[in-house]
Amino acid sequence: MRILGIETSCDETAAAVVEDGVRIISSQVASQVEIHARYGGIVPEVASRQHILTIIPVIEAALAEAGIRFKDLDGISVTIGPGLAGSLLVGVNVAKAIALASSLPIAGINHLEGHIYANWLSSPHHLEPQFPSICLIVSGGHSDLVLMKGHGDYVVLGRTRDDAAGEAFDKAARILGLGYPGGPAIEQAAKNGVALVKLPRASLKGTCDFSFSGVKTALLRLVEAGRLSSAADGAASFQEAVVDVLVSKTVAVARERRVRQILLVGGVASNGLLRRWLVESSPLPVLIPEPVWCTDNAAMIAVCGYFHLKAGKIDGLGLDVIPSLKLA
Ligand code: KG4
Ligand code: ZN
């Protein structure tokens, strides 16, 4: 079964073809990072206009890379939320047009569920995901701890009370003058630094919630007071504080819930320190997609679409965007 996935929730225009929910036949991602970098963050209006310009070429490139035409597809899936309304609209309307013209079943996908399903993509040391599992979803807009009981069956146990993990990385990078996007910039800078300062870790005991605004403010105060030896040391200290909290909460909740695995997903899951630290601290198998499938892409949307369509979850052409879509 070949599914075309389409993703336009934020600042990447992406299309991919995935076979049987595991094999990537093609994947194209047109990033708008350089366009938004000059503003220091994503400008929604600019993002949606850019999606309009790139969506058709990106889909054509994904089909060309796969060596197929629309008639060779068995279904189509598209992100309907959460995300920027104007951006989501571009992908959803193009997906509906293709579904109508080619008589294909369509599945509307939650972007966060898409991130989780990146773990089904086959890779060299691939472990099959098992239920129940604990998913840590860490992206630009979310830091969620989710109990996954089966396909499409989620209980959100905790979330961030202020900044998402990726958002915190982006803001910290701005404070340290490291540019945008912040996550990769902090990780790179931290390689030349030492985590000399112990920045505060909000434990929020008794809950599965996170809070990252305190550590960001503490970093800002250090910079303002001129008490940081270098941006690299600031990056190392910040990265360590955020990763420490993410790992300790995730391992604690996985133990408490007696799950079989931990799934780490979302853009921040491409962070090397987080990947290593979680694997080393967890008594359970930890599944993490290859870094390239952690950040926004359409292959994960196609995988998720495969499981939706296989389960008979087919949407009609009345499908619409839901910018504040929740997981459970
Ligand atoms: O999942 P994603 O690509 O888009 C959203 O759905 O938000 O996540 C983007 C976020 C950004 O905040 C970015 O700074 C962060 O993921 N990120 C990282 C790394 N790569 C991307 N954070 C830490 N370390 C990284 N290597
Ligand atoms: Zn994402």
Strand and helix layout:
Elements: E1 2-7, E2 12-19, E3 23-31, H1 33-37, H2 44-66, E4 75-81, H3 85-102, E5 106-110, H4 111-117, E6 133-138, E7 143-150, E8 153-158, H5 165-175, H6 182-190, H7 213-224, H8 231-257, E9 261-265, H9 272-281, E10 286-287, H10 299-310
Helix pairs in contact: 2-3, 4-10, 5-6, 5-7, 5-8, 6-8, 8-9
- Helical stretch tally: 10
Could you tell me which ligands this complex binds, including any ions or cofactors? 5'-O-[(R)-(carboxyoxy)(hydroxy)phosphoryl]adenosine, zinc ion
Q: From the alpha carbons, calculate the radius of gyration and give it in angstroms.
A: 20 Å
Strand arrangement, major sheet: 3-2-1-4-5
Task: Give the mean pLDDT.
Answer: 97
Summed up, what is this model?
The protein is an alpha/beta fold and 328 residues long. It is 41% helix and 19% strand.
Q: Can you walk through the features of this model?
A:
With 328 residues, the protein is an alpha/beta fold. It is 41% helix and 19% strand. It is built from 10 helices and 10 strands. The strands form 2 sheets. Strands 3-2-1-4-5 form a 5-stranded mixed β-sheet, sandwiched between helices. Strands 8-7-6-9-10 form a 5-stranded mixed β-sheet, with helices on both faces. A hairpin with a 3-residue loop joins strand 2 and strand 3. Helix 4 packs across helix 10 (299-310). The radius of gyration is 20 Å and the shape is globular. Zinc ion binds at residues 111, 115, 139, 266-267, 296. Residues 10, 139-141, 166-167, 169-170, 181-184, 187, 266-268, 270-271, 295-296 line the site of 5'-O-[(R)-(carboxyoxy)(hydroxy)phosphoryl]adenosine.
